[in-house]
């Protein structure tokens, strides 16, 4: 994925609409969470099984909510100068320490509950 | 960003911990929204100005919450077979129709309020 | 539930800590959504069945996340002068129009999908 | 607020529409978080000042999103047997320990950052 190209497209989009004053990191985080809420709403009444076998209509709706989350995430990363790919690898490494295979295998407890 | 490489890494991570049974699309959407909530919490008491000038400590916390959102988004896309980059461009095109420059310039109303 | 008493308690709590400057409606809405995200996280890896039969430890955690949501909701209502009980009855009446029994029976589609 | 009366109304509402199978605690937590996301969306592009001086139209929208959050919270409490009022007072007491006046006065850091 060409993140820079997408971010430039989003910058143009915002510039053309004079939306920069609205796009503070705080507001972008809110917008991202709002979109995550809409993504959630697509799944809220589905069973686990239904969520694994979405209809075409459901998948399209889910896809665009995921895109909305991504777009705000890219925009926020751009505003904050965050390298998302590097952050992702760093976070995976941190998670590997918190959720060691020995402790986490077969359960999905939070790391602070793993020893209990 | 090499999405496939990151998704493979996440698949391995989940396989090693036997987490696949937990990673239904429904549950991944919940986890993503939970992380979006944590991202939100980093900004909730900051002023607009403070959110534009994060301290190093704040930026690090924000960066890892953004990474968490990204990781669940990538995992969900993998499970659903969604091409995130294509979805992003399609959504930008849809947004350009909903938020035409003429209507949206200088305001950030929702598209169904734009004519009011 | 004595809402006024709880709201007064929250006002005192905020006053004693000089938190009023932080408690704008915008920030309170963020805090509420952050707590909703924490509530979500308690359920994210549970099956439907497990969520209906929480352990004592899980129920305690869930209870306090619900309390957090309620406290921010009460605080926000206080700041905005919203009568929550009246708003609840008004919303139920609106929902009854949107989700008529004839259309909604046995399915949980959103109201704009009900005719499809 | 007569919580029992509201909960009975919600139970009837769900019974008439045969929605009980959808109303697992897990799904209700998702729905609550989705509504919190909609509440958030009402505030996302507003400045702190604007959020303190909502227009009538904005306040109405906010009021009904708050009502949606409350209704799912009441329904969840009913399903789980949680006494919301008691939980609220217990949580305030816990918060008073975590955020002592001496430490928290004039700042809104999270309790685990207060000593830093």
TrEMBL record, chains A, B, C, D:
CDD domains (UniProt xref): NTP-PPase_RS21-C6_like (cd11537)
Q: Which SUPFAM superfamilies match?
A: all-alpha NTP pyrophosphatases
What GO CC terms are in its UniProt record? cytosol
Q: Which InterPro entries match?
A: dCTP_Pyrophosphatase, DCTPP
Output the Pfam families linked to this UniProt entry.
MazG-like (PF12643)
Mind listing the UniProt keywords for this protein, alphabetically?
Hydrolase
**Gene3D superfamilies, A to Z:** MazG-like
What's the name of the protein? Nucleotide pyrophosphohydrolase
- List the GO biological process terms: dCTP catabolic process; DNA protection
Task: List each coiled-coil range.
Answer: none
Keyword Hydrolase attributed: yes
Q: Name one GO molecular function term.
A: dCTP diphosphatase activity
In which organism is this protein found?
Sulfuriferula nivalis
Does Hydrolase show up as a keyword for this record?
A: yes
């Amino acid at each position: 994925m060409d993140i820079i190209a997408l971010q430039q497209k989003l910058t143009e989009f915002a510039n053309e609409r004079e939306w920069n004053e609205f796009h503070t990191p705080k507001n972008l985080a809110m917008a991202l969470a709002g979109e995550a809420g809409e993504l959630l709403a697509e799944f809220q009444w589905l069973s686990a099984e239904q969520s694994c076998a979405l209809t075409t209509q459901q998948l399209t709706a889910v896809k665009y909510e995921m895109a909305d989350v991504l777009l705000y995430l890219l925009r926020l990363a751009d505003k904050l100068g965050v390298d998302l790919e590097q952050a992702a690898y760093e976070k995976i490494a941190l998670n590997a320490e918190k959720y060691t295979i020995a402790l986490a295998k077969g359960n999905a407890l939070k790391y602070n509950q793993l020893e209990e």
